Amino acid sequence: MKALVYHGPSNAKWEEKEAPKLLKPSDAIVRIVKTTICGTDLHILKGDVPAVTDGRTLGHEGIGIIEEVGTSVQQFKKGDKVIISCITACGSCSYCKKSLYAHCKDGGWILGHKIDGTQAEYVRIPHADNSLYHLPEGLDEESALMLSDILPTGFEIGVLNGQVQPGQTVAIVGAGPIGMAALLTAQFYAPGRIIMVDTDESRLETAKRFGATDTINPAKQDVKSVIDQLTDGVGVDVAIECVGVEPTFAICQQIIAPGGHIANVGVHGKSVELHLEDLWIKNITLTTGLVNTSSTPMLLKSCCAKTIEPNKLVTHHFALNDIEQAYKVFGHAAQEKAMKVVLSNS
């Protein structure tokens, strides 16, 4: 089969690789129908995730059709169309029993990280009964693909951790795919104001179409001054960091109101400063996290009901064989006006 194989920072190749086989009775082999590229994949290619080693197939998102299942798999059979979760869960370890599936002792985020991932023609899914979802008939495939990672990540680590409530003022710093997922799902809770912060004017315009009430471009405006004007000097109730770099984390600290929540979603490859000299007195809550995907069943129902339509995040389409070109486009998202790219394995 063909797969996108990592060979070190800035080096990934679409090349021949041995097709996956069942290793345990709880495994399933899935033929990829559609996959996508995540910002985390770009972090891997920058060398920010040293656990990813030479020879690893990248990718942790996808939808596909089951080719084969192990003898202990009960919920799925050959021919079933499925959504692949970015998180693998055994369902029985101490972390899984606390719904901390991200830290499953025999899973968690392993696809495209510690085992071969979904940017390939076929993928092995461990603990298939707990790590796959049936794709309902009639659900748009591209919406389903967004359920692999970005929608539950933006919702759980941004909106739920941030404890967004009706009437609140919410700032989302970073209008990439995760920031847009947080924007879409924050509206479940009817905040009074959602402010999107980004340096890309095209993405800010997209954010307004998706429900942002205000936008701020830090390249042209002083974010804290604008926030102070919008909130009578109070600051925001929730600041959701969706980039993973020092300047955006600093913005969140500058604009948070007393008693507010900073929800860090971004993947940080380098250390950042935490200004406790300013924050210790403000009674804030700071959260971090890796998605557990415990919200996926609810989000799946919301997509089926078209309460949210995450397929609107898709801007570019490629054949899976053209994945190297897709990475170039996604890696220059501002220039290419790219949000989510979809790769199809025909």
Number of domains: 2
Overall 3D shape: globular
Please report the first level of CATH classification, the CATH class of the largest domain: Alpha Beta
Biggest pleated sheet: 7 strands, mixed
Report the total helices. Answer: 12
Gyration radius from CA atoms, angstroms: 20 Å
Fraction of residues in helix = 25-40%
The CATH architecture of the largest domain can be given as Alpha-Beta Complex
Number of strands: 15
Give the distance, in angstroms, between the N- and C-terminal Cα atoms.
Answer: 13 Å
Average per-residue pLDDT, rounded, comes to 97
Protein described:
By secondary structure, the chain is an alpha/beta fold. It folds into two domains: 201 residues, Alpha-Beta Complex (Quinone Oxidoreductase, Chain A, domain 1), CATH 3.90.180.10; 135 residues, 3-Layer(aba) Sandwich (Rossmann fold), CATH 3.40.50.720. It contains twelve helices and 15 strands. Strands 3, 4, 5, 6, 7, 14 and 15 form a seven-stranded mixed beta sheet that branches. A six-stranded parallel beta sheet has the order 10-9-8-11-12-13, with helices on both faces. The chain has a two-stranded antiparallel ribbon with strand order 1-2. Strand 8, helix 5 and strand 9 form a beta-alpha-beta unit. Helix 4 packs across helix 5. The longest helix has 11 residues. The two termini are 13 Å apart. The model has no long low-confidence stretch (mean pLDDT 97).
